[in-house]
Design brief:
The complex is a heterodimer of chains A (167) and B (670). Chain A is built from six helices and no strands. Chain A has 167 residues and is an all-alpha fold. Among the domains of chain B are: 2-331, no CATH class; 520-619. In chain B, a hairpin with a 5-residue loop joins strand 9 (596-605) and strand 10 (611-619). Chain B has helices at 2-29, 32-61, 68-73, 80-85, 91-112, 121-142, 166-181, 183-195, 201-232, 242-267, 271-294, 309-329, 346-378, 386-409, 417-440, 446-476, 481-491, 493-517, 621-639, 643-661, and strands spanning 520-526, 531-534, 537-548, 552-563, 567-571, 574-578, 583-587, 589-592, 596-605, 611-619. The chains are: A mainly alpha (167), B alpha+beta (670). At the A-B interface, helix 1, helix 5 and helix 6 of A face helix 13, helix 14, helix 15, helix 16 and helix 17 of B.
Chain lengths: 167, 670
C-alpha cells in the first residue's frame, strides 16, 4: 500500500515536471507563430555591437547592427515571412552566435534538457530518500473521519500554546 | 601613502599566516593563549587593511595620480562622491574593498565567539584567515593597488561613466557585503567538519550571518536591477547577463539554505545537505568573481576584466575539492536518524522548495557556462540569452511560488487530508478569484493567468497564517486586533518576518510578470511643440537645454506629459558625454506609479533639431521595488534579536558543554 502511494507520488512529480518542460518548450515555440511583430523577432537575435543585449533591447541610437536589422525585420515581416524564416535568414548570414537562445537540435539540446533532467533526477532522489526515511505514523495519529471540529480545536490549542510561551 | 599601503598589506599577509598557525597550534594543543593571540592577529589584520583602504581613499580624494589605480579610475574633475566610490570601481580597489569587508566580518565573528564555541571557533577563524590569505596574496603579488606611475600623468582617465550613478555607488557594496558575509557560515560549516562537532551549533551560531548575507544579496541584486533600469536605458532591469547570473545564483542557494536549516534545527535531518549548500553558496560567490574578472564569459557588466581568472579558478577548485573531501571524510558521522512520515508535511514542502531553488540555480549556471561548453565541444560560439532563461526558469518559478504557499500552511510531520482541504479552501478561492479577475481584465496568456492565480493563492496563505495567529492571541489575551498583530510579529519575529519576506517575494514576482508581458514601446522623432502618445499619456516636446561643465557635456530635453488630458508634469530625459572618456551616457526620465512606469529615453538629436525619443510604458515595475522593500523589512524583522531565541541558544550551548564535561576531552580537531 505504502509502496503504491510512493510510486503514485513519484509519477505525479514526474508528470508535473514533464508538463513544466512541455510548457517551456511550448512557450519557446509559441514565439515563432505566424504574423510576428518586430519585437518578437528581434528578441530572438543578439546584437553584435557588443552591448550584450538582444536586437530588440539594444538602444544605441547609431548602432551599426540593431538599427539596420530592425528595419530589415520590418521589411521581411511586410513580405509575409514568419519569425522562424527571418531567424533562419540571420542564422545563415551570421552563424549561431546571432541567435539569443540555443537551437533545439544536436548538442544544443543539452542546454534545454539538462535543467529539467536535473530537477527530475533531484525529485526522484528526494522520493527515494524520503521513502527510505519513512516511518509509520503513531497508531493514534490518523484522525478519524468526521472529526473536523476536533482537529480545528487541536490546531487552535497548538497556536494558543505557542502564544502562551511568548507571553 | 603608497608605501604605507604596501607595507600594511604585507603585514596583513604575514599576520594571516601567523593567525592560522597560532589557531592550529592552540586548538590542537589546548592552548587558549595561542587561540587568543590568533584572534588578536585577525583584529590586527583588519586594522592593517583598514589603513590600506584609507590610504587608497586618500589617493582618490586628493587626485594623487602617482598611483596607477587613481590615474586609471579617477580624475580631478570627477565629483567627490564618485572619487569615494571609485574604490570599488576598478579591479585592485574592489579586491581591496572585498578583503576589507572579509576582515571586518571575520573580526566581528572572532569577537562574538571569543568565549563561545571554543571547539569550532579556532578552526572557523583559520578558514576565514585562509580565505583572507588568498585575497591578500592577490593584492600583494598579482594585482597591486599601490603600484606607482612613471611619469606621473597630469590627469586621470576618469571613472567609467556607467559607474557614475547613485545606484552603482550602493550596488557593489551591498552585493560584496552579501558575498563576503557568506564566508562566515561557510567557515563555521567547514570548522564543524574539521572538528567533528556536527550538531546544529554551527548553524545556530551563524544563523544571523546567513540571513545578513541573504539580505545584502537581495539588496545587491535589486540595486543592480535598478541601476540597469535607470542607466542602460533599454526599459528593462534584468538581461540574464553572466554577471547578473553570478549574483543571482548565490541568492538562490542561500534561500534554499535558510529553508533547509529549519529542518535540521527541528528534526536533526539534512546535515550533509546543509553543509553542502553553504559550501555551494560560498563557492558561487568565488565563481561570480571569477566570471567578472576572467573575461572567459563575455559580459556587459565586466568593467574590470584581467588575467586574474586562473587564480580564482585554482582557488575555487581548491575550495570545492577541500570542502567536498571534508564532507566525504565525515560522511558516516553525518548520518542522522532521519524520520519522514508523509509527503503532506512541511519538511516535504521544504525539500521540494530546495529542489526547485537549486534547480533554478543549476539552470542559471548551465545557461551561463553553456557558451563556453559549446565552443569547447563544437568549436561554435553561441549566445544564451533571455529567451532561454525565461523559458527554462518560467515554469520552475511557478512551482516555487506554489510551494511558497503550501509550506507555511501544512504542519511538520504530517497533515491530514481534511485539515489540508480546510486550510487551503480560502487561499484556493482567492487564487481562483484572481485568475477570474485577470480573465475579465482581458488577460489571456496562460503563464500570466497561472502566475497571478498562484500569487493570489500564496497571498491567501499568508493572510490565513496572520489571521490564525491574531485570532489565537485575541482568544487568549484581551487585545485589539492591531495590537495582537504587532505582538504576534514581535514575539515570533523569525516566523512572521519570514512571511513578510514571502509577501515581498510575491509582490516582486507579480511585478516581474506584469512588466515582462505587457510592456509597450514607441519611438518618435519630433520637433519642438510636436506631440505623440503612448497608452493614456500624451507627450509634447518643449525644447532642449545644454550644460557644459569641465567634467561633462549634457543635453536635456523637456517634455510636457499629460495623462488622459488631466494632470501635467514635465519629464527631462538627458544625454551626457563624459569629456575624459568621450563616452556617452543616458539619463532616463521615469514617471513611476503602482500601475505602470512611463519611461522616456532621449535617443538622439539630429542637425535639424529633431529629437528622437524612445518611450516605454511598463506595467507593475513599481511592484518589483515595493516587493524588495517589503523583503528588506521582513528580513530586519526576522533578524531582530529575540529574547526567547537567545535563551534557547544559551540552553543548547550549556547542554553541549554539560555533555562535553561528561565525555573524554578531545585532544585535537580530528
Amino acid at each position: 500500500m505504502r509502496a503504491r502511494a510512493c510510486s503514485a507520488t513519484a509519477v505525479a512529480i514526474g508528470c508535473a515536471l514533464v508538463c513544466a518542460f512541455s510548457c517551456a518548450i511550448a512557450t519557446a515555440i509559441a514565439a515563432g507563430a505566424e504574423c510576428p511583430t518586430q519585437a518578437q523577432v528581434a528578441e530572438g537575435l543578439t546584437c553584435q555591437c557588443g552591448c550584450g543585449l538582444t536586437v530588440a533591447n539594444c538602444n544605441h541610437p547609431m548602432c551599426s547592427f540593431s538599427v539596420p536589422v530592425r528595419a530589415e525585420i520590418d521589411s521581411m515581416i511586410g513580405r509575409g515571412m514568419s519569425r522562424a524564416q527571418i531567424i533562419a535568414f540571420y542564422r545563415h548570414k551570421f552563424g549561431e552566435k546571432v541567435l539569443s537562445a540555443p537551437t533545439a537540435e544536436g548538442f544544443n539540446l543539452l542546454a534545454w534538457t539538462m535543467p529539467f533532467l536535473a530537477v527530475l533526477l533531484g525529485g526522484a532522489f528526494i522520493v527515494i530518500t524520503a521513502n527510505r526515511w519513512r516511518v509509520a505514523p503513531p497508531a493514534s495519529s490518523p484522525p478519524p473521519p468526521g472529526r473536523d471540529r476536533a482537529s480545528d480545536s487541536a490546531l487552535k490549542r497548538k497556536l494558543e500554546d505557542e502564544i502562551r510561551e511568548q507571553l | 601613502m603608497a608605501d604605507l599601503g604596501k607595507l600594511t598589506l604585507a603585514i596583513a599577509l604575514i599576520l594571516a599566516i601567523y593567525s592560522i598557525a597560532a589557531n592550529l597550534y592552540g586548538a590542537r594543543r589546548g592552548a587558549p593563549a595561542f587561540v587568543a593571540s590568533a584572534r588578536h592577529a585577525l583584529w590586527a589584520m583588519c586594522a592593517m587593511v583598514t589603513i590600506a583602504v584609507v590610504a587608497l581613499w586618500n589617493g582618490l580624494l586628493t587626485s594623487d595620480f602617482s598611483l596607477e589605480y587613481v590615474a586609471a579610475y579617477s580624475s580631478s574633475t570627477l565629483p567627490t562622491p564618485y572619487k569615494f566610490t571609485a574604490l570599488w570601481g576598478g579591479q585592485q580597489g574592489s579586491l581591496l574593498f572585498w578583503t576589507w569587508l572579509l576582515l571586518i566580518f571575520s573580526s566581528i565573528a572572532a569577537f562574538q565567539n571569543r568565549r563561545r564555541n571554543p571547539e569550532i571557533a579556532p578552526y572557523a577563524m583559520m578558514v576565514l584567515a585562509g580565505v583572507a590569505i588568498f585575497f591578500l596574496a592577490m593584492l600583494n603579488f598579482v594585482t597591486r593597488p599601490f603600484d606607482l606611475m612613471s611619469p606621473i600623468p597630469a590627469q586621470g582617465q576618469d571613472l567609467n561613466p556607467l559607474l557614475q550613478n547613485y545606484w552603482m555607488a550602493i550596488h557593489p557594496p551591498s552585493l560584496y557585503t552579501g558575498y563576503v558575509s557568506a564566508t562566515v557560515p561557510f567557515a563555521f560549516g567547514a570548522a564543524a567538519l574539521m572538528t567533528g562537532k556536527l550538531d546544529d551549533t554551527w548553524i545556530r551560531t551563524t544563523r544571523r550571518w546567513a540571513i545578513f548575507s541573504w539580505f545584502f544579496l537581495t539588496l545587491g541584486n535589486l540595486f543592480g536591477a535598478r541601476w540597469a533600469y535607470e542607466v542602460l536605458g533599454w526599459g528593462g532591469y534584468w538581461a540574464w547577463d553572466p554577471v547578473e547570473n553570478a549574483a543571482f545564483m548565490p541568492w538562490l542557494v542561500m534561500t534554499a539554505y535558510l529553508h533547509s536549516v529549519m529542518i535540521q534545527e527541528r528534526k536533526d535531518m539534512l546535515k550533509v545537505w546543509n553543509l553542502a549548500l553553504i559550501g555551494l553558496a560560498f563557492s558561487l560567490t568565488i565563481f561570480g568573481t571569477f566570471i567578472t574578472r576572467s573575461g572567459v564569459i563575455s559580459s556587459v557588466h565586466s568593467f574590470t576584466q584581467s588575467g586574474l581568472g586562473p587564480y580564482f579558478l585554482v582557488f575555487l577548485a581548491a575550495v570545492v575539492a577541500g570542502y567536498a573531501g571534508l564532507i566525504w571524510f565525515r560522511a558516516r558521522e553525518l548520518r542522522s536518524p532521519a524520520e519522514f512520515e508523509s509527503y503532506l508535511s512541511r519538511e516535504a514542502a521544504f525539500l521540494f522548495n530546495n529542489l526547485v531553488l537549486i534547480g533554478i540555480a543549476f539552470a542559471v549556471f548551465w545557461g551561463t557556462i553553456f557558451p563556453v561548453l559549446s565552443e569547447a565541444v563544437r568549436g561554435v560560439k553561441i549566445t544564451v540569452g533571455p529567451p532561454f532563461f525565461n523559458s527554462v526558469n518560467g515554469p520552475l518559478a511557478l512551482a516555487l511560488v506554489f510551494l511558497m504557499g503550501v509550506g507555511p500552511l501544512i504542519a511538520w510531520r504530517r497533515t491530514s487530508a481534511d485539515k489540508l482541504v480546510r486550510s487551503f479552501a480560502a487561499p484556493i478561492a482567492l487564487g481562483v478569484a484572481t485568475a477570474l479577475a485577470a480573465l475579465i481584465g482581458g488577460i489571456r496568456a496562460w503563464y500570466v493567468l497561472t502566475a497571478f492565480s498562484l500569487s493570489g493563492f500564496v497571498l491567501g496563505t499568508v493572510i490565513v497564517e496572520f489571521h490564525r495567529g491574531v485570532n489565537a492571541r485575541r482568544h487568549l489575551v484581551a487585545e485589539s486586533a492591531p495590537r495582537a498583530l504587532v505582538n504576534l510579529v514581535s514575539k515570533n519575529n523569525r516566523r512572521y518576518g519570514g512571511y513578510i519576506i514571502h509577501l515581498g517575494v510575491l509582490i516582486a514576482f507579480a511585478g516581474i510578470v506584469g512588466s515582462s508581458f505587457f510592456k509597450t514601446e514607441v519611438k518618435r522623432s519630433v520637433r519642438e511643440g510636436e506631440s505623440f502618445s503612448i497608452g493614456p499619456y500624451q507627450l509634447r516636446y518643449l525644447g532642449m537645454s545644454a550644460v557644459d561643465t569641465p567634467h561633462l557635456l549634457s543635453a536635456t530635453a523637456r517634455l510636457e506629459v499629460v495623462r488622459d488630458g488631466r494632470e501635467a508634469v514635465t519629464m527631462e530625459p538627458a544625454k551626457l558625454v563624459y569629456k575624459r572618456q568621450e563616452q556617452p551616457a543616458t539619463i532616463v526620465a521615469i514617471r513611476s506609479t503602482p500601475l505602470a512606469d512611463l519611461y522616456v529615453v532621449l535617443a538622439g538629436i539630429d542637425d535639424t533639431n529633431r529629437a528622437t525619443f524612445e518611450v516605454f510604458l511598463t506595467p507593475l515595475v513599481w511592484w518589483l521595488w515595493a516587493g524588495g522593500v517589503l523583503m528588506a523589512i521582513g528580513t530586519v524583522v526576522a533578524m531582530w534579536p529575540n529574547v526567547r531565541e537567545r535563551a534557547a541558544i544559551a540552553a543548547a550551548l550549556s547542554r553541549a558543554r554539560a555533555g562535553e564535561l561528561g565525555a573524554e576531552p578531545a585532544p585535537g580537531g580530528d
